[in-house]
Amino acid sequence: MAAKNVVADLTRGDKLTGNNYDIWHRKIQYLLNEQELLETLSSKMTRPEDGNTAQHRRDLEAYQSWFKKDRSTRFTMLSSMHDDLIGEYEIFQNAKDMWDQLKFDFGGTSTTRLRSLVLKFEVYRKDPKHTMTEHLRMMSGMIRDLKAAGNVLTDEQQVQARSAKRRPNLQPLSPIGGQRKPNGFKRKDKGKAARQGGPSTNAPKVNKGANQHKRKRGAKKNISKMKCYNCNKLGHFARDCTEPKKVSLPLDLSSIYVCYPSSIFVCSHVFVAKSISDWIIDTGATRHVARDRAGFVDYRKIPAGTHVVYMGNGSYEEALGVGSYQLHLRTGRTLLLHDVLYVPGVLYNLLSVFTLLQLGYDFHLSLNGLDILLDDVIFGHGSSTWHARLGHIGKDRMTRLAREGLLGPLAKVDLPICEPCLAGKACRKPFGKAVRATQPLELIHSDICGPMNVKARHGASYFLTFIDDYTRYGYVQLIAHRYEALDCFKRFVAEVENQHEKSLKALRTDRGREYLSDQFKDLCEEKGIRRQLTISNTPQQNGVAERRNRTLLDMVRSMMAQANLPISFWGDALLTAAYILNRVPSQSVSSTPYELWKGEKPNLEHLRPWGSAGFVHSTAHKYGKLGPRARKHIFIRYSDSSKGYVMYGEHPNGGMTEIESRDIDFIETDFPSIGDANRDLDLYELEEDEGTLPSSSEGGGLVPRPVIAEDSGSDLQPSGSITLDQDSQARRVSSRGHIPRRHFEIEGNVLLCDAKDVDEPASFSEALHSPDRDEWMTAMQEEMSSMDKNNVWELVDLPPGRKTIGNKWVLKVKRKADGSIDRYKARLVAKGYTQREGIDYEDTFSPVVRFASIRLILSIVAKQDLELFQMDVKTAFLNGELDEEIYMAQPAGFEAKGHERKVCRLKRSIYGLKQSSRQWYLRFHDSITSFGFEMIEEDHCVYLKRSKRSILILSLYVDDILLAGNDMDSIVTTKKWLSSTFEMKDMGEANFVLGVKITRDRSKKLLSLSQGTYIKKILERFHMHNSKPIDTPMEKGCTLSLDQCPKNDEEKNQMSKVPYASAIGSLMYAMLCTRPDICFAVGMVSRYQSNPGPAHWRAVKRILRYLRGTSDHALCYHGGDLRLTGYSDADWASDKDERKSTSGYAFILGGGAVSWCSKKQSCIALSTMESEYVACSAAVQEAVWLRRFLQRLGVTAHAEDAVLLYSDSTSALAYAKDPKYHGKAKHIELRYHYIRDMVSQGEVILQHISTGSMVADPLTKPIARDLFFSHTKSMGLRRI
């Protein structure tokens, strides 16, 4: 027990620092003796040379025994050292050398050690906080140390010392060497120094000089009104005070003695440090003192007792070394201090004024502190300090202040590199001054902004600007898709060239795909328009358009903040803002853009506040003779086809409508609301910082200038020209470099727009205008060729009374395992949602292989080193034959010439039909069984073919096939048959299937499954790819409940913008495939999809942060034992809403998990036993299925063994094994007793395991990090 206490002391509080060597070396010897390791401090051995004799073997055994003990001794000694010492002594290869060096460094010679012990004994005084027993024990220890060093005290001396040292104001028993006065400086407050009782020889002189004007010699003192400087009470002096000495910083450091063997020096600091790492400028110290080793550039150890620092409160510290110290000042400068003492025990680093004065430094003292000067260069409160005080102003302004004497002694400003200025004022290199156009249409700037987080009323998600460089007049067009930019540009060119009778000379844009298409290039070449493209990720080169987009959106936000209209009216606000900006002065031109463009001054008298109310006069008297002559509407924009306003309001016959009118009486202070006005104004957040924008003198500068709108007579305004594709449901989003980051956050900005690497068109017309038009057309041609090859339909006239179903093109980019583009894929999909049950289809069910089946097969592949190949069925659904008569419209873009009115009578199933998947499966099943494969009953998408020398296992997931086997010839034969029966694509050895990367090291029988690319993709999708990683998916003790759901409409509206369900779905796919570690967390957050709250969303983001740090983790099968082992666990009443328990199980095969589950129980368990019993029942069902699956495959000798299922509940195991009646369990439903039947039949063996070893623990609740790592590692999750 005592040894344990010593270990705790040495590893926690009594670590060796050098000054406590005496007590440390006694404790360490006691500990090593208790561990039978003491002999290693006095002996060492070397490894014997190679040999094969009996003596050599004995020598080797002796050496190995010694080495083991020596290693333990070194570990014990190093563990008991301070961190600063470990690096110095861990270099010793054996304990004896380390022990001898420590004795030399800190034990000292007989003379120096004795001197140190005598000093310690002389200055020691009883601490008032210590009891008499503690005081006597410390005295006995010092007397014992003196005796060991050769200085034996008599009994009389010991009694006298114990008595004297009880009073802290007694002087030492005897002086230690001579004393000398400190020189090179003067004490300012000598009286205070005298009262504090410093042991300097000039103390009597100080006392005399300080009091000679108060009273004569021999006069009696009246102490009743005297105040103690220690306790602040009247009636006594500080030297007679019985209260504990103050431990405040000024008192501790106001009397510091740097003691040498023959002298003592008085030190006094001039200001108090702000932190432990600060340096105190000390006007009394004759040597610099440092408390940390990090700053020493030259260091050497010194024997113990050579230099001692003695504090005024009675404590002292020994110096362990001396050297040169590099002091980095806050000003950015560096001082190299020589002969600095290393004293780790002092509280603060001390800078000696005396030493600096001898070196030629000067000091300037002011109310703001102390400045150190050397040749007009200031250290301390110098240029950098003033620079920070003045808010990081520039050098020129500081120089003016210094010249006027406002910066104290600072005469010359010399600023070093300022990192805060670099961080706060950093900007890109200035762009050269652009050459401005000299006439209209000489240069046009253009850009597309969007998509917005909310579509405009007419469906627009973007807006397009065209800006004339000379006049700064421009046009704005609302568009739904980026590809519309080409048509808008055609109309723009035709209109402006007709108005000005000039040709457009040049067009400046960024490198967005919409501007780089072949059609856009051909149009510019045809018109003779010169292209000016920006450098990638350099939007400043298109600064006119970029800045105007920003200015325009700033106005939109401001107008919508004042009005009470829904955010879907942002398009109307945008057009209104653009209309106004064309008619107000610009910093870039001498007049207004309108005047330079039209040749006349604009009229502003008709302008009205956007969103204000107005009564629209009706000349037709629609409301009858007695009805109102005007109705209240809301002003939403200026008309583009007439000199009037567009008003929004209720139609007389119901609903809402737009009205164009000039006869309106406005109420400009009334801003009525309609519907639910969304107050989120973060339409689009631009990334550029105004601090980085070029100045207004630059032609391409991004200064705040008006962003253009159309002329009131322009036909490019959106009210009558927006064209939307009704079939298009998905937004096309660009990934251009200047689009800013967006975040899914409740606290900050809501989702503004999504970003993808490549635009995936949502329709045929969109594909035609896509920058990747050629690739998409090729993919669609391949799909149509496949349709024709498989004779999918025939063209017929639509029979009377029958209806056709529609179709659409689904265009996707297929990627490789590393995320790069593999191919462009087009799929013609029928609109099966229009089919009618009983007429167009009957049965629809179609199985797919379970992921658990795939993982089980792959674990066998790893263990038995089987071959593994992958194949893909091209247009798989086209192989299914239809039993029903279905008619479909011809595909868009591929109508048969001369037969446009005919329809397609489907002969085979195609994608999108409700029965397509089933028909394809039936066709494949019939074909593969006819080839000799047998379907496994446990999974109808796994087929087995066995012969005397070979075994083949085929698994099917829709159109993806995995083929495993031990005979290469059989595999090749099967692949050839598949290719001859279906149109196949041979993918070679399996390495990427269903989004899961398969990696094999066949020499080690290692197979791993990972989804790193998929995880990175979802992190980018939800803008969490730069988030801070975290160790666990859910914090221990975290609970979620319905109480955290939104309570009012505002909170629900806020959460409606968060892609909660989408994030859950993305996480769930990773969890189902390869990540059992997030199973519980995903299951927990998925319970609140119907009404999630901010706390639930934060839990989802924590899972994403966890995946951010573990995206390189893989589920590994390392060829381990093929005995199926299961773990079952439950967390009783963990659901705070329904008080239901959570079940979890995991099954391990071949070193990795093949099946796992975390699920809330359907019943309310009345006890932990019941919850564990219900969990075991679910685990037994999975165990039986897995066991029979293995038996059906017949590839492992352990397939017939019962499954070993572990549980940490002894009561649940006892109840499962004992069928006797239990009163506390009589209510348990009958179906849960299935476990008993399986145990009795020998299908499962139940075994108890400790809670700390329960692998399924992370599947039922959040647990601590270390335990979480241990259990997930047992499941096979490892970093790759």
Can you walk through the features of this model?
Strands 30-31-32-33-27-34 form a six-stranded antiparallel beta sheet, sandwiched between helices. Strands 16-15-14-17-18 form a five-stranded mixed beta sheet, sandwiched between helices. Among the domains are: 2-107, no CATH class; 444-621 and 679-720, 2-Layer Sandwich (Nucleotidyltransferase, domain 5); 772-994, no CATH class; 1120-1280, 2-Layer Sandwich (Nucleotidyltransferase, domain 5), CATH 3.30.420. The chain has 1280 residues and is of the alpha+beta class. Residues 167-221, 245-276 and 675-757 have low confidence and may be disordered. GO terms for molecular function: aspartic-type endopeptidase activity; nucleic acid binding; zinc ion binding. Residues 227-243 form the CCHC-type domain. It comes from Fagus sylvatica. Residues 157-221, 707-736 are annotated as: Disordered. Pfam families: gag_pre-integrs, Pol_BBD, Retrotran_gag_2, rve, RVT_2, SH3_retrovirus, zf-CCHC.
Label the overall shape.
extended
Helix content: 25-40%
What are the segments in which pLDDT stays under 50 over at least 5 consecutive residues?
167-221, 245-276, 675-757
Profile the largest sheet: 6 strands, antiparallel
Strand order of the largest sheet: 30-31-32-33-27-34
Q: Count the helices. How many? A: 35
Question: What Rg is obtained from the alpha carbons, in whole angstroms?
Answer: 43 Å
Distance between the termini: 45 Å
Biased composition (Basic residues): 211-221
GO molecular function: aspartic-type endopeptidase activity; nucleic acid binding; zinc ion binding
Biased composition (Polar residues): 714-727
InterPro entries: DNA/RNA_pol_sf, GAG-pre-integrase_dom, Integrase_cat-core, PolX-like_BBD, Retrotran_Ty1/copia-like, RNaseH-like_sf, RNaseH_sf, RVT_2
